[in-house]
């Protein structure tokens, strides 16, 4: 039988996995954005499009670096879900 506690823990585990997988990309983007903002403040360059290309490159670089880890995490989570289907439908 599905209880509200089970549904909440199931949803919490999914959100935790999503946050964990997206954290490296968000962190790299945040770090590059902060560095560029400081550079713009120091040099008084207020070009709005200056931040886009470096952020995109940083996120792509973080995907390349962390891709094996991200795939491993997703495969483990999915395998755990599939293996526990009989327990979930009881």
What characteristics describe this protein?
single chain, 90 residues, mainly alpha, 3 helices, 84% helix, membrane, transmembrane, Flagellar biosynthetic protein FliQ, transmembrane helix
Short description:
The chain is mainly α.
List the helices and strands and how they pair.
Elements: H1 4-43, H2 52-83, H3 85-88
Helix pairs in contact: 1-2
Going by helix content, strand content and strand pairing, the class is: mainly alpha
**How would you state the average pLDDT, rounded?**
92
* Number of helices, where a helix is a run of at least 4 consecutive DSSP H or I residues: 3
Low-confidence stretches: none
Number of strands: 0
Topology order in helix (H) and strand (E) letters = HHH
Task: Count the domains.
Answer: 1
Oligomer: single chain
Helix content: over 70%
Transmembrane segments: 17-40, 52-71
Protein name: Flagellar biosynthetic protein FliQ
Subcellular location: Bacterial flagellum basal body; Cell membrane
Membrane topology: Multi-pass membrane protein
